[in-house]
Amino acid sequence: MRGPFPRSIMNLSGASQFNQARIEWAIRLRFSPMPDLSLDWIASNLNAFRIGEMRVVGKIWETMMERDGELAVNADKRASDLACLNWQIVSDGSPEGDRHAEALNYFYKHLRTTRALDQDASGGVSELLYQMATAHSHYYSVHEMLLRIDNPAAREVTAEFRHTPIWFFESRRGYLGYLKHIFDVYGQPCLQGEWLTVVGLGWMRPLSVAFVLKTLSLRDWMMFSQRYGGGLLEAITTAQKGDTAWEEAREILLQLANDGSVVHNQGLDIKFLTMPAASNLPFQPLVEQVNRLYAKCYRGIDLATGSRGSEPGAGHNILGASVQKEESGIFLARDAAWATECLNDRVDRPIIRYLFDKEPRAWMTIMPPLDESADEDLKSAQLLVPMGLRISLKEAYKRFRWTAPADGEPCLQNFPPHSPNGREGDSPPSPQATPTLPASLPPQDGPLAPIASGADPRRNPQTANPETPDPQVDNAGFYSSAAAMPALGYAIPNEPR
Known about the structure:
It is a single chain. The chain is of the alpha+beta class. The chain has two domains: about 1-225 and about 280-375, no CATH class; about 230-275, no CATH class. The chain is built from 14 helices and twelve strands. The strands form four sheets. A five-stranded mixed β-sheet has the order 3-2-5-4-9. A three-stranded antiparallel β-sheet has the order 6-7-8, with no helix packed on it. Strands 1-12 form a two-stranded antiparallel ribbon. The model is unreliable at about 1-10, about 305-320 and about 480-495 (pLDDT under 50).
């Protein structure tokens, strides 16, 4: 099972490159950026990220995701859409491709996904796709691949993927390097087959500034509410400042401010001042604008935010909802193609090379949902195929995501409509032959000529015998009763004997 690469590139030992001490130090060095949050501080760390330093900004982004629910839920929706998609292994149809597909199918169905700093988390392919989608937030997503050989003879291998925070790495040389020690400047290259590294959109870079603006606005909004949300008290007295009456009025005002009750003479007038309508305050519009920006970046449109409900005419916006669905569908199709290409290059190729020492002829494919035109395509096929349009079965299976049946596998069939008088369990009726008229008509002369035109005289037809009653004038007699008996007998179920 040796491949073209050195064995060290596949990490066959199953041991992680960072030990328990490295993990404990990483957990201890976590911190919250909230006490020192400012635009200057954020700008400084964003500039550090541009030159490959990620130890500080990576922790800042993690904390932002933990503290801002609106930001976290939009990022979660984007990642969850990708994680919920179906996947399959596609072969090129050759015998070798089928062997590659069998090996990849075992690999993906038995892989395990966890997190380097939270190893209680566990999942499979869905969790792997969810964690890969964090690259749309942090620009990078990194998994350590620990190969696990289950059955060497059958080429049954799989791996454990450990999602590692981006602040374990640096990118000063144009590629990611793992920082083995916390104070290293340059790290070890993340080789293919040992690490699964993907690059996403990295929305946290522009959203970091928006997060600071939202946080400062919420802080100012809270201070304004504390100071002026409860209104003000005004005491009016005729006493001069410094007089005994003035000091009494001052004490009364302080007691009322502390929810107290007082008794005073007619020389003191106390009023409660309320703040005028503060509809022009800048706090709420700024917060809502940032929330809309979160939704636009992750979902494509801002109809997902709750602020739409407060706008005039923002009730059931059917058109807007359809636009939102269309935009999300575009993002989802793009994410499916992006994740497929990353897995094909960073996982499928090294695994197949290791097992077969060849380029892969089967690949893992993530299937985006069917677009809304699938129903229209099906109706078009039902209309055009009877008119002579030829559509290959392979193309139909591919368009509607159906699996081709195996040899001898029972399949659905198109039976003619069943008789309404049929009983449950009856087999489908056989198609009836269309009656045809004979080429020539028998002679119609003579008393024994058949009544019905075209009847065969050799089959003992009814003739114009005056002694035979006519069923048309029998007044529901013998012939009418006999005609109803076959249908009546068919409707009576067979009783067990």
